[in-house]
Amino acid sequence: MNEKCLFCKIINGDIPSAKVYEDEYVYAFRDINPQAPVHILVVPKAHIGSAAEVNAENSVYVAKCYEAIAKIAAAEGLDNGYRVINNCGEDGGQSVMHLHFHLIGGMKLSEKII
Ligand code: AMP
Ligand code: ZN
Q1: d(CA 6, CA 114)
Q2: Is residue 59's pLDDT more than 90?
Q3: pLDDT tens column, 6-58
Q4: pLDDT score recorded for residue 4
Q5: Which of 31, 40, 113 for mutating ligand 1's site (highest number of atoms within 8 Å of CB)?
Q6: Which atom of ligand 1 approaches the CA of 33 most closely?
Q7: In contact, 17 and 26? CB cutoff 8 Å
Q8: Are the C-beta atoms of residues 91 and 28 closer than 8 Å to each other?
Q9: Is the CB of residue 95 below 6 angstroms from any atom belonging to ligand 1?
Q10: Three-state secondary structure along the chain?
Q11: Is 17 in the pocket of ligand 1 (CB under 6 A)?
Q12: What are phi and psi of 96, to 5 degrees?
């Protein structure tokens, strides 16, 4: 728990969120500014600042996030596919410095960066 971190406060229940999934490692909730019919943030319960801070000690949280993504996508009916986005650091457009994965779907996603 990082006292100044927005997502740590959400995980801790200090700030309300629209929770869609939770387990020992992962908390997931609807993005407050959705970019598609389904836009969920999948967040590790440990405070990891960004993808740049993933290492051998904490990478289990990344694996658990992706396990959760598969479950949430199925529960949300995203049978035809979806996109997972991670913005890392300033150049990557990250605005909340707690590692998170955007799970986006429910429509045909046209814009491709790569
Ligand atoms: P990023 O720009 O990749 O760091 O993504 C941060 C995301 O957090 C943005 O899509 C915001 O809309 C979302 N966000 C910020 N504050 C909240 C909040 N209180 N509840 C839900 N989503 C939020
Ligand atoms: Zn945090």
Answers
A1: 30
A2: yes
A3: 999 999 999 999 999 999 999 999 999 999 999 999 999 999 999 999 999 99
A4: 95
A5: 31
A6: 12
A7: no
A8: no
A9: yes
A10: CCCCCHHHHHHHCCCCCCEEEECCCEEEEECCCCCCCEEEEEEECCCCCCHHHCCCCCHHHHHHHHHHHHHHHHHCCCCCCCEEECCCCCCCCCCCCCCCEEEEECCCCCCCCC
A11: yes
A12: -115, 120
Beta strands 38-44 and 101-105, pairing class: antiparallel
Which residues are marked as active site? 100
Distances (CA, A) of 41 to 25, 48, 56, 57: 14, 15, 23, 23
Instruction: Name the closest ligand to CA 96.
Output: 1
Token readout for 83 is: 């996109």
The edge-to-edge listing of strands for the beta sheet with 19-22 is: 19-22, 26-30, 38-44, 101-105, 83-85
Q: What is the mean pLDDT of the chain?
A: 96
